Amino acid sequence: MVAHSRGAGTVRAAGRVNAPRPALVEAHADGSPRRVNREGVAVIREEWRVVDRWWTEEPLSRRYFDVVLESGQHAVVYRDEERGAWFSQRGA
Amino acid sequence: MVLPARRLTSASRRSSFVELHCHSAYSFLDGASLPEELAVRAAELGYEALALTDHDGVYGSLEFAHAAKAFGVRPITGAEVTLSGVGSTEPPKSGGAGFAGAGAGIDASHVTLLCESQAGYANLCRLLTAAHAHTRPKPADPPLPPALDVALLKERSDGLVCLSGCARSGLAVRNPAAAAELARAFPGRFYVELQRPYERGDERRNAALRHLAESLGVPTVATGDSHAHSPERARLQDVLVAVANRTSLEGCESSRRGNHESVLPAPGELRDRFPLDREAVARTCELAERLEFDLTQELGYRYPDFSDADEPAIRQLARVCDQAFQERYSGLNGHKRKARRRLDEELALIDRIGLAGFFLLHWEVLELARECALEVRGASAARQVLPPGRGRGSSVGSIVCYLTGLSHVDPVAAGLSLGRFLNDELAGVPDIDLDFPRDIREQLIVRVTERYGHEHAALVASFATYRSRGAIRDVGKALGLPYAELERLARLSDGWNARRIAEELRLVPGLAEKAESPRWRAFAEATYEIAGLPRHI
Hints:
heterodimer, A: alpha+beta, 7 strands, about 50% strand, B: about 525 residues, TIM Barrel, Arc Repressor Mutant, subunit A, 3 domains, seven-stranded mixed β-sheet, two-stranded antiparallel sheet, 11 strands, about 10% strand, globular
């Protein structure tokens, strides 16, 4: 029982660590990111889209970008189409 | 003003892309639009041509071909075929609707086959028949998924173009070595298929596929893998995946597509998805031009002409009729002469339009039915006197039908004319419906198959389509709605038109107030959209 509780707690903690954070993103006309948190985007490595839970109170529509910033740092950001806001997600 | 069906010249509607991989609802729970809906949408988007490639079947192809032509879109016939016998280098993942890897052997990889010529269509039909053979080892159990032995595909590749399959279950993705081997069986007719479903991993997969194409020396081609003609139907596609997996939308997340990019795209939009593969996009148009087979044209089907016998079919038919004539018209003097004249005229007409074999075939099936009835009922049974089968409809105007047992009405005595049933202007074959009593059907099916051979006898299928109650239960379960409430609604529903479910929902006490919740709203929308779609064969 104790081990199980600790396991569940670890998952919750991991969830908080990787929780999306609001990001400051300037986008091109086609919606792809140009600058992320005031830093220029050097390369967009990949784009993918997620549309899910459209039948619930919390529909999900996201446009993800895997980018390399000018500093060489790697980042995953997404545009939340439902909320009209950008987020970054570590470990994605 | 009523506009004629859109028939634009190929020059005026030259598109930058032709979709060569598209599923309709005849992919059964892995496609959310009817063939004609796809055809209309393709015309609106400016497509020059469109291929219909349903899973392991061409059930919707004829309907699609006629609809597409009416709207000025050139129809291309094909199918996405599930393979067996290729082994697997990757563990199977569940496909769009849990269709891929659902159990057709250990591999169940897909390839897309497109008909280039009539020989290709004939081969495709043979291959699909083989894929479905032996899928019912226990007739009472649900059928096994179809699977085509890749060795047979290599044998019957003539007239077909092979694309290497979809992003999730394509042969080139699952087993590049097997794809390389198959490519050799399709010299100059094998393409590595690139798709961009906007899933994570698209870039890496397409890079590997480009590399494979280069190493094999074959071209790449871009496809959309469309499963719906509108965004509403993309949501329905999610529901269908849940139905196919017998679970809820929440329970089939890994099998769903994860987004709604499987809607038939505008050619320009598809082109934008492939910035690194413009040639693969342009190549779809070149390939489409090569796929000239037209399912709406005469395919050269002919009824058996009984030419394997010593005497010509018309003489065999005349002999059968003469024998029956002696029995039925003996002693009817004035009537007999009139009947004889009518019979001679009819036989001459049948000879002119070359349908003697057609009538002999029906006579022979009735004779088989007579033998079956004797075996099943016994010579002394009261039911023995019942006819073993009977035609109906306009065939009652034919004395040949009367004498061969197709009709029980003497057209001469009843003063019936032949013209509606048979005439010199007849373009195809006359319409004959034969009904057989329930007690002999099973035996008769076996006898007919034995008489004409498995290659020449087939059962005709029908499609179960969504009506109210099926829609309420399937969609409701997919959305995780309470069983008791769904049953209340199903009992109160008119049972026929699923498009009225949203109205009916508002009339049910206790449900009316829930109708505005997202889940019930989704239910109302999906039941409206699913109305009339085929569910299974």
